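Pipeline run #58 for the internal structure catalog. This entry was flagged by the ingest filter as a single-chain record with no existing model, so it goes straight to prediction. Upstream metadata was stripped on purpose; only the residue string is passed forward. Reviewer on rotation: M.T. Logging verbosity set to normal.
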Amino acid sequence: MRHTSLLLLLVSGMLGAFNSYAQDSDTPTNKVIHAEGYTYEFQSAAAPDLSEWMQKELAPVVQEWYPKIVKMLPSDGYEAPTNVTIRFRTDMRGTPASASGNRINCNAEWFKRELNREARGSVVHEMVHVVQQYGRARRDNPNATRTPGWLIEGIPDYIRWFLYEPETKGAEITARNLSRAKHDASYRITGNFLNWVVQKYDTNIVQKLNTAAREGKYSEDLWKQYAGKSLQELGDEWKEGHEQRFANTLSDDQKKAGWKLLFNGSNLDGWRNFKTNTIRPGWQVKDGILVCVDPKNAGDLCTDEKFTWFELQLDYNISPAGNSGIMFHVTDEGQRAWATGPEVQLEDNEKARDPQRCGWLYALYQPPDDPKTGKPLDATKAAGQWNRIRLVINAEKCEHYVNGVKYFDYVLGSEDFNARVEKSKFGKMPLFAKSNTGYVVLQGDHGEISFRNIKIRPLGD
């Protein structure tokens, strides 16, 4: 009996200690929640002043959205972690939040600044990482493919910005970030791309890509299989849609930098045919685009304003076998625009007859050979697609860029430049390239071509 009593006392003490431990698991800086088969532990010992916010504001978001994310990203034979720990830390430097396994780390100082902005959403993003678990495939299969980082981060931001908090519009493509809009830019920009593919091509593509990534079977071929187009084709179409939305506009930053539009997207104000005050009917404005619809009745289109040193950017879309050009420093002294102004060639490099290729300074300068092809560098996209030209015309140095690729540079009036002019057909034209100021001219008598986003920034005299 004595042994029995002692045993009962011992068991009673152990149970009491266990009950005391269980009750103490919820403290002002530690809270454990069991809900719907999941256990969530919230630890705020490193930031006690955030305990109330974590328990009252963050915990409900986690309880609601973690099960949702698990359902969004299933795959055969996979079970997402059922225990999730979220803790504040003070040693994360500039990283707002991170996930490892089933643990989410939150930068206490960053969260204090973002409680009413991005704090909750950042945890939603990290909960997606907890569910993804893409590294498991490489542990089980040495031949597993690696999922690109831009997609690993893009899926959480798609779920965050377009499903959890779409009203914030935090992943919108704007005039300010348009230049960075690439499908593989990662995070919110890739999230925007994924949302576009979901809306237009396949409502289940994120789930399918997630399954492939988790199984170590991701490849770019999947985009063609699921959406009917290659990843590059989808990325180009997505960006083209955004570029068209912002065509013929300037961002606040561009305005501050001195940029001005030469084409407003609505009419031909600021333009005329060369050496006239009128515009022939071959030039028209259609859907915000300046179009040479009839090269036989268009002629060269000339700005009203003269420019000295400047940076010029524009987009062009040329017809198959089409040929056009951009001339600068054109004056009224010559009978033709090209008699005074150097010409930057625009053409369909694949089918046009003229051996002078797009982006070249006609008959004077061309880019170096591309080691991959053994032919002059060619960064153009095919006829029917939009290409971007950037010209920097300055006293110190002139530069030509096609789709962001630099072709060459030169100095107007230099010994090298003058020697090249002398050897070319322009050597017989006494007024050619003699003026440091003049009109910008679009050539319109060699083929159908369209222009948009024509903008210029003076560089100073």
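catalog note: Residues 136-245 form one domain.
catalog note: The CA atoms of residues 36 and 373 lie 61 Å apart.
status: ready for reviewer M.T.
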